[in-house]
């Protein structure tokens, strides 16, 4: 498994992060997740004020995690679809665990079974499946520890 360097996102990383985010959403095959445009995601990345960390190896940036300041929820954890299964997501999740040692929660689309398996195989516990308050889409809530 390749070693992944996790570091803060730099301004030049933004286009790649947005592309990974869009490609990752589209790769789920879930219609509701394929709606935003690249421009909308770019604007959201600028607007949210998230702390974004990227996973990088010899092949470039393979994924990112975005966490809001003073939050106990990673808002986005995305891996470039061709790099899924290479340890990028695990490296990013391990980084979140290190930076949030008191624990955290996250949500994913209830129908996103690959993401759900990923979280469960890495020790996160399913806390329930329920409608997301703002969109009413069904989401699976995971907690760690």
Amino-to-carboxy terminus distance: 25 Å
Structural class: alpha+beta
Taking all Cα atoms into account, the compactness measure Rg is 14 Å
Helix-strand topology string: EHHEEEHEHEE
Walk across the major sheet and give the strand order: 1-2-3-4
Residues in helix, %: 25-40%
Helix count, DSSP H or I runs of 4 or more residues: 4
Determine the strand fraction and express it as a percent band.
25-35%
Mean pLDDT: 92
Runs with pLDDT <50, length 5+?
Answer: none
Largest sheet entry: 4 strands, antiparallel
Indicate the overall shape: globular
Helix-strand blueprint:
Blueprint: E1 5-8, H1 14-27, H2 38-48, E2 51-57, E3 60-67, E4 74-79, H3 88-99, E5 104-109, H4 113-121, E6 125-131, E7 138-144
Short description:
By secondary structure, the protein is of the alpha+beta class. The protein has helices at 14-27, 38-48, 88-99, 113-121, and strands at 5-8, 51-57, 60-67, 74-79, 104-109, 125-131, 138-144. The longest helix has 14 residues, at 14-27.
Characterise the protein shown here:
The protein has helices at residues 14-27, 38-48, 88-99, 113-121; strands at 5-8, 51-57, 60-67, 74-79, 104-109, 125-131, 138-144. The protein has 145 residues and is an alpha+beta fold. The strands form two sheets. The protein has a four-stranded antiparallel β-sheet, with helices on both faces. The protein has a three-stranded antiparallel β-sheet with strand order 5-7-6, with helices on one face. A hairpin with a 6-residue loop joins strand 6 and strand 7 (138-144). Helix 1 (14-27) packs across helix 2. The longest helix is centred in the first third of the chain and has 14 residues, at 14-27.
